[in-house]
Amino acid sequence: MKNFDPATNIQRLDGRDACRGVNPAISDSATFTFPKAHLMTDTFHGETEGYFLYSRHWNPSNLSLCQALAAMEGTESAWCTGSGMAAITCALLHEVKSGDHIVASMTTYGGTFAFLNNYLKKFNVDCTFVNMQDLDAVKKAIRPNTKVLYTETMNNPLLRIANVPELSKMAHAAGAKLLVDNTFTPMIFSPYQLGADVVIYSMTKFVNGKNDCVAGAICGSAEYINSLIDVNSGTAMLLGPVLDPMRSSSILKNLHTLHIRMQKHGENAMYLAKRFKEVGFKYNYPGLPEHPDYALFNEMCNKGYGYGGMISIDMGTADAASKIMEIMQEKGVGYLAVSLGYFKTLFSNSGKSTSSEVPEEIQKEMGMSEGLIRFSVGLDHDIEATFQLIKESVEESKR
Predict the structure, then answer these.
(1) With contact defined as beta carbons under 8 Å apart, do 309 and 206 qualify?
(2) DSSP character for 98?
(3) Cα-flanking dihedrals φ and ψ of residue 72, to 5°?
(4) What are residue 304's DSSP bridge partners?
(5) Nearest 10 degrees: CA dihedral of 378, 263, 381, 350?
(6) Are 211 and 339 in contact (CB under 8 A)?
(7) Which of 17, 124, 252, 261 is the S-S candidate for 98 at Cβ 3.0 to 4.6 Å?
(8) How buried is 257 (Cβ within 10 angstroms: 0-12 exposed, 13-18 middle, 19+ buried)?
């Protein structure tokens, strides 16, 4: 077949010459051959293009996905991992050494909080948690040994928006890097274009959209990604959290509908927000003017993708939240489950689930109610019917 010979390890990078299919071929190989011995040596040194060494480093399927992710983010390159936490931990570990310091958002995913607050202490890396909306507090927290500012574009679960351009200026003035987790808001925000150095995803969520796998991504400059997967010193290369090529292929196909899905998620969440407001629920959604970051959101966002599919309501107590969620699941609103970005609505009590690693005193400090129910709004066709079921669930829980 023209331009494809498995014995020479050469094919077009997107794989299409291998089968003439509309989708890139899946490269189901852990290792790859070389026609000449010196090419293997050169590839080990990062001095070749179009050759593949070993799938922990690169393979054609992962490369196809990463090229698409880089195009989406406006970065030069990207690299995909076997989970979102693998992306987060590799990106952070790559920037610090013993004695270094990180400034991170107090309101962040529980697993990230635990890694920063607990695990990094093993390596004598200190982390200061601050309210990232308070730029003066961020500035005061920066030390001479600060190497990273870390935040989520839309934080979990309070849905506050990070001022990425200003945080970027602060980080760079201090000789640090700004790392941004954009899991909640793909397409809606482009953190790299706003000044972030590295953009991180749990592709398990909206990017893939089907909750059939766990995966992560790290997007940045070509120099940065090459350093991340360097065979001698690259954190991702040496820790080995590579994504399986079968999953890469699946995620790449789903990526092509992401813009449509984000629009619908946002449309449905906006509808629920307006209806929650009408009936007097204590809700939180960044798409309405009363949200404290509404203006900032509009300054930074890419127009046409909405305000995201995440919304929350506060039921006051964890017991009340639990009762309502159980009724909602029985009525078919969606599923009482962690994670987000699924085509069905998912809901959970953040303080008892995805933020449970955050100590209760810090939950209170960040302003998180124990009765907070976080919704990842699905792609429901009749969102009014969904609202009515939620309303009925709340009313029934009070009887």
Answers:
(1) yes
(2) T
(3) -65, -40
(4) none
(5) 20
(6) yes
(7) 124
(8) exposed
The DSSP secondary-structure symbol of 242 reads: B
What does the alpha-carbon distance between residue 308 and residue 328 come to, in Å, rounded to a whole number?
Answer: 22
Query: CA 266 to CA 54: how far, in whole Å?
Result: 40
Strand order, beta sheet including 372-376:
283-284, 310-314, 372-376, 346-349, 335-336
Question: What sign does the CA torsion over 359, 361, 362, 368 have?
Answer: positive
Element of type H or E holding 396: helix 383-397
Residue 283, number of CB atoms within 10 A of its CB:
21
What are the residues facing 313 on neighbouring strands? 283, 373
Beta pairing partners, 78: 219
CB 216 within 8 A of CB 81: yes
Residue spans of alpha helices (H) in 220-332: 222-228, 235-239, 245-255, 258-279, 294-300, 318-331
> How many other CB atoms are found less than 10 A from the CB of residue 42?
15
Domains and CATH numbers, the chain: 16-255 (3.40.640.10), 258-397 (3.90.1150.10)
The one-digit pLDDT tens for each residue of the chain (399 residues) are: 233 333 343 444 444 455 578 888 888 999 999 999 999 999 888 888 889 989 999 999 999 999 999 999 999 999 999 999 999 999 999 999 999 999 999 999 999 999 999 999 999 999 999 999 999 999 999 999 999 999 999 998 899 999 999 999 999 999 999 999 999 999 999 999 999 999 999 999 999 999 999 999 999 999 999 999 999 999 999 999 999 999 999 999 999 999 999 999 999 999 999 999 999 999 999 999 999 999 999 999 999 999 999 999 999 999 999 999 999 999 999 999 999 999 999 999 986 766 667 777 777 777 778 899 999 999 999 999 999 999 999 999 988
User: By the 8 A CB rule, do 260 and 232 touch?
Assistant: no
- pTM beyond 0.85, yes or no: yes
Q: Report the first-to-last Cα separation within the chain, whole angstroms.
A: 70
Exposed / middle / buried, residue 22 (Cβ in 10 Å: 0-12, 13-18, 19+): exposed
